[in-house]
Amino acid sequence: MNENVVEILIYLYENYMDSEQNALSDQDQLHEELVRAGFTSKEIAKAFLWMDELALRQSSQYFRPHTEHSIRIYTGEELERLDTECRGLLPFLEQNGILDQAGRELVIDRALALDTHTVVVDDLKWVVLLVLINQPGQESAFAQMEDLVYNDVPVHLH
Any bridge partners for residue 119, and if so which? Predict the structure, then answer.
């Protein structure tokens, strides 16, 4: 199976985070289930690390904006790894109240942490969804993002 971290994150979301079913509390049990589902131990470890880092960054003050009105300038690595569609999606999500500046920065951080050379817009949508799922007060933004992910709503800037 040619999987990546995003596919594992999607599997976990669809089987545990988006359902009434309780997640396996033991990481070893979850690891075994993922292996049975066809994922490699190496990719599973990367996905677990990705989720741990997300939780750590969400609980820190690292991504708090310094000003309410600012312009985002992308670094060379960000320009190389986030395709044009991704860089268009982020301001669209901000303009529509789905992401704030801190959320945008967290999304960029987690997107760059994926084990891919270029992040495509479908993967970025999943990253946004996973960032929003545990954000208090972001239920509406999460629901809008879930609609964008599952209904493949086209993103158009006007």
Answer: 82
Q: Measured at the alpha carbon of residue 129, what is the angle toward residues 12 and 114, in degrees to the nearest 5?
A: 70
**Nearest CA among 27, 21, 29 for reference residue 49:** 27
Count CB atoms within 10 A of the CB of residue 6.
Answer: 22
Give domain status of residue 119, yes or no.
yes
Within a domain: 157: no
Q: Would residue 158 count as lying in a domain?
A: no
Tell me what the mean pLDDT of segment 93-120 comes to: 92
Structure confidence at residue 2 (pLDDT):
42
**What is the rounded distance in angstroms from the CA atom of residue 128 to the CA atom of residue 65?**
18
pLDDT of 153 strictly over 90: no
Question: Which residue segment(s) compose the domain that 9 sits in?
Answer: 5-150
How many domains does the chain divide into?
1
Report yes or no on 101 lying in a domain: yes
